[in-house]
Each structure stands twice: as C-alpha cells, then as structure tokens.
Amino acid sequence: MSSLTNKHILLGVTGGIAAYKSAELVRRLQDQGASVRVVMTPAAQEFITPLTLQALSGNPVHTTLLDPEAEMGMGHIELARWADLLLVAPASADFMARLAQGLGNDLLTTLCLATAAPICLAPAMNQGMWHSPATQENLQTLRSRGITLFGPAAGAQACGDVGPGRMLEPGELADLTAQQFSSGLLAGKKVVITAGPTREPIDPVRYISNHSSGKMGYAIAQAAVEAGARVTLISGPTRLPAPDDCRRIDVETAEEMLAASLAELEGCDLFIASAAVADFRPAQLAGQKIKKGSSDTMTLELVKNPDIVSTVASHAQRPAVVVGFAAETQDVVRYARDKLQRKNLDLVIANDVSRADIGFNSDDNAVTLVWRDREESLAQRSKAQLARDLIQHFTQTP
Ligand code: PMT
To answer: What is the predicted pLDDT for the residue at 244?
Structure first.
C-alpha cells in the first residue's frame, strides 16, 4: 500500500468554498505519515482561518510573500525546497490562470515557480467556470508543464448548479497524493545500495571514519522502494531508520561492506554505491586501548581497503547497471569522469562536498550525472526529491 511516511507535503489553499475541506485534508495526509505545511492565499483566508490550519498541521501557516519575520524562519525558497510535493487544494480558476501565466504575485504562485517538487492541483469551481474556454486552455498549459490534476468530481455544487467542478474528497486526495510517489519504474527489479560511512577500527575504542550521514543513500533506497524495486540497503553506521519494505544489512567496515555486497549480487539489476567508504584502514587492530605514552607524536600505518564498487563492476555477476558517486572538492566533473572509466561504471553521480549546504550530512544535494557520452546537472534540491529524479535516470542508463 502506498503511504506518505517521511514525505513533506506543502498544501496550498486558495479562495473557494471547498477551502473548509482543507482542514480535513491536512488530517488525512498526516494519517498517511506526511508532514504538512500550509500556504494560504488572501482569498482562502476569507473562507477558513490560518489558525485552524496551524492547529491541525502543527506548523505556522504561511500567508504572505513579503513577511520579514517569516523569511527569517522558513523563507519562501526554503519552503519550496522543503516540499516533496506541492498540492493546491482547492485550486480556484483564478489561481490556475495565474499559474498558467507564470505569475509570482503572491506566496503560493511564487512557491510554484521556485519548487523542483511535483505540483498537483485539486480544482474546485462552479461548473460554468470549469467549462469556460479560458479555464480549459489554462488546464492544457498546466498539464503540458507536467502539473497533475486531481479531479474535479461532478455533482451538486454549493451554488446549486450540477456538473463538474467539485473538489475531490480529502481521503481521495490523500490517496492520490500518496500514489504520486509510487512510479513503478523499477517494478520487478532488484536494487542493492550501499550507504553511510564505514568505520575502520584502530583499537577497541577508536576508529577512522568520515562525515557521511547516510541521508543520500537512504533517500535512494526509499525512492527505489516507491518505484517498485526489491531493495537491499547495505548500511554503515548511521542514525537513520531504514525505509519501510527494504532489507537493511548493517555493516561497519569496508571489508564487511564488500562481503555483504558480493553476497547480494545474485539477481541484482542495479547496484548503487553511495557509501563513503574509507579508502584505508589501520594495518593492525590493537587488541587493547592504545595508551598515550610519553611521545608527542604517534604513527599509524594504514593499508588500502578493497574498492567495493569496482569489484562489483568487474564481477562475473555484474549487475546490468552499476552506479558510483564521486565526492569531490575541486574539478568535480573531471574526477568523476576519471572514476567512471577507472572503475568501469555506467554512471557516476558527482557531488561537491566542499559546500556545507549540499553533500555530506545535509538535507539537500546538487549533482552532475556523468555518463560515458554525456553529462547532466541537477540543481540543488532535497535529497528525497533528488533520489526520485535519479531513479528516472537509472532507468535510462546505460
Ligand atoms: O551520506 P550523506 O551525508 O547523505 O552524504 C552523501 C555523500 C556525500 C556521502 C554521497 O553523496 C557521496 O558522494 N558518496 C560517495 C562518497 C565517496 O566515497 O566518494 P569517492 O569519490 O571516495 O568514491 C567513489 C565511489 O567509489 C563511490 O561510489 C564509493 O562508494 C566507491 N568506493 C570508494 C572507495 C572504496 N573503497 N570502495 C568503494 O566502493
């Protein structure tokens, strides 16, 4: 069953009598596990108060674009990035017209322009307004831009007319929203993902590791599950819960990660190496805690760890598609292309880990995809959204 666990839903409410149903919609989205933030247009506030939606969503309701206080908290660009999906319910004829024209004359239209997340509209209006050529043309424009329409339903309307233009019921809208995250793109495929850091022990209390939080790899695992894949997540130590419906194998060292990866190769279609594997490990593991002693220096001998992704890529059971990441601080694409060739990969996802707002331990990432014959950059977005976008690219690789 599809669900909205861990999903950030930005709910836009525009002016129409159906706005009273938005209160119930917040609850139905939360029932499926979503975090909900609400944005209201001025017209929406004539029908329902921000206080109601604030109390139900548990978050401040956003109403104006030019509010210095709100911008100091979660400003409109952060809000646009926060969203995994932007649902406008009800979407009035006026709002759809402004969206079709690309206007950014209030907070909600501005968010629609700024977000990289999918946008879904639940139209609600009088049947005559729905049938009008202007609304129908706007609909076509919005659809051609990839915006999804939920409804409207037909039936008796608040104004006494009968016909199409009624907003779908909150439960139906919550189900349709959840379905947006189930693409089926990887249906029937087995996907193995490495994620997080490795820990290379020095002695019983110390180890060598890095700043990987696992967020990128876990987001890919979640997106792959939603795309219908059977997912094995081979994870170094992280604080993250495993996505539902995914098999998680916990490991600590690079050698353990390699062994787990090789054991999972049978029937694997797609292998994704997002883990930040320590390139070296201490040559000796001290049986007891190493004492400080009197010397001011200490020398630790390191030996090279096995390269997991290149071992997988040259294995007799090589999956059809092997994807690596490249964490770089300079010449990101050049080094990524070098890794693509040296490690015999089908795709390398290069990220700049010198920036604090993307890469290691951040909620966002921005990457360049490097194939043998082409490159494509994906601008900064949440790791959850990026993971869903990457799934599409995996299905078109090599
Ligand atoms: O976990 P997060 O906090 O969300 O951060 C995400 C991330 C920055 C860790 C991730 O996006 C990322 O870049 N992962 C790869 C980090 C890395 O180790 O890059 P690398 O350039 O050193 O390695 C290149 C590739 O070889 C990677 O696919 C890596 O998994 C793989 N590798 C490296 C060494 C090794 N011994 N075995 C490997 O399989």
So the answer is: 82
Whether 336 lines ligand 1, by a CB cut-off of 6 Å, is no
In a domain, residue 125? The reply is yes
The pLDDT of 130-147, averaged and rounded, is 96
Q: In terms of DSSP bridges, do strands 321-328 and 270-273 run parallel, antiparallel, or are they unpaired?
A: parallel
Q: Give tens-digit pLDDT for 148-158.
A: 999 999 888 88
| Pocket lining: 197 vs ligand 1, CB cutoff 6 Å | no
Q: HSE of 392 in the Cβ direction (CA atoms, 13 Å)?
A: 8
Question: Do you know the residue count of the chain?
Answer: 398
Q: What is the pTM of this model?
A: 0.80
Question: Residue 268 catalytic?
Answer: no
Backbone CA torsion sign across 295, 298, 299, 303: positive
Residue nearest to atom 13 of ligand 1 (CA): 327
Q: Is 326 in the pocket of ligand 1 (CB under 6 A)?
A: yes
| CATH code of the domain containing 49 | 3.40.50.1950
Tens digit of pLDDT for each residue in 14-42?
999 999 999 999 999 999 999 999 999 99
Count of domains for the chain: 2
Cis peptide before 398 (omega within 30 of 0): yes
Got the DSSP string for 226-269? Answer: HTT-EEEEEE-S-SPPPPTTEEEEE--SHHHHHHHHHHT-TT--
